[in-house]
Amino acid sequence: DAGVIQSPRHEVTEMGQEVTLRCKPISGHDYLFWYRQTMMQGLELLVYFNNKAVMDDSGMPKDRFSAKMPNASFSTLKIQPSEPRDSAVYFCASSNRQGQAPLHFGNGTRLTVT
Amino acid sequence: AQSVTQLDSQVPVFEEAPVELRCNYSSSVSVYLFWYVQYPNQGLQLLLKYLSGSTLVKGINGFEAEFNKSQTSFHLRKPSVHISDTAEYFCAVSDIRQGGKLIFGQGTELSVKP
């Protein structure tokens, strides 16, 4: 299995631009998570899905962030408009069982907003 | 709600010495506990997990952790570290009712010196 695949690996954009991060979970995994990692805040859960439905998005700034999972093998995290404080590494992770199963992480997207 | 506190942000240690990385959690409900490792420019990988049963859990790369319910701790140990163990280590907790949503600690940077 190829694991969780994220694209792009690096993204540099200017403040105010739209940014779209992409994730392909492991086949058969019905939980998908988006985390953001910064030096100051550590790993923060932004949103997670179960069977393509949003289960919890309480960690996601609703005014500029949106997350979608149009099918079982693809998810996007969109930031519009982007701001310098959004600079971070964004991780996607998936798992196949409630609670007990470990998360499988992608290698992350490093976002820099100038 | 759950929270995780990793008591040391950095732990320097010499090669072949023992190491303990400390983790305390807070939760009003039963939880699952995990340790993950992150190497530079990579996503997180599972080291070990505690779901139930024996409080001493063995993981990959010679690591083990002990669940102590009365002290709400889940400390990670290795009797003899290698240079290759240099990485960041994250303790995480999930509510057994909430489908894999992991809350992470701030991380401990383990630096193994020759």
- Low-confidence spans of chain A: pLDDT under 50, at least 5 residues? none
Query: Biggest interface pair, residues each?
Result: A-B, 25 and 25 residues
Whole-Å distance between the termini of chain B?
41 Å
Bin the strand percentage of chain B.
over 45%
Write the H/E string of chain B, N to C. EEEEEEEEEEEE
SSE arrangement of chain A, N to C: EEEEEEEEEEE
Distance between the termini of chain A: 36 Å
CATH 4th-level superfamily of chain A? Immunoglobulins
For this structure, the quaternary state is heterodimer
Beta strand count of chain B? 12
- Binned strand content of chain A: over 45%
CATH topology of chain A: Immunoglobulin-like
Largest sheet of chain A: 7 strands, mixed
Mean pLDDT of chain A: 93
Number of strands of chain A: 11
Helix content of chain A: under 10%
- CATH architecture name of chain A: Sandwich
Structural class of chain A: mainly beta
Q: From the alpha-carbon coordinates, what is the Rg of chain A to the nearest angstrom?
A: 13 Å
CATH architecture of chain B: Sandwich
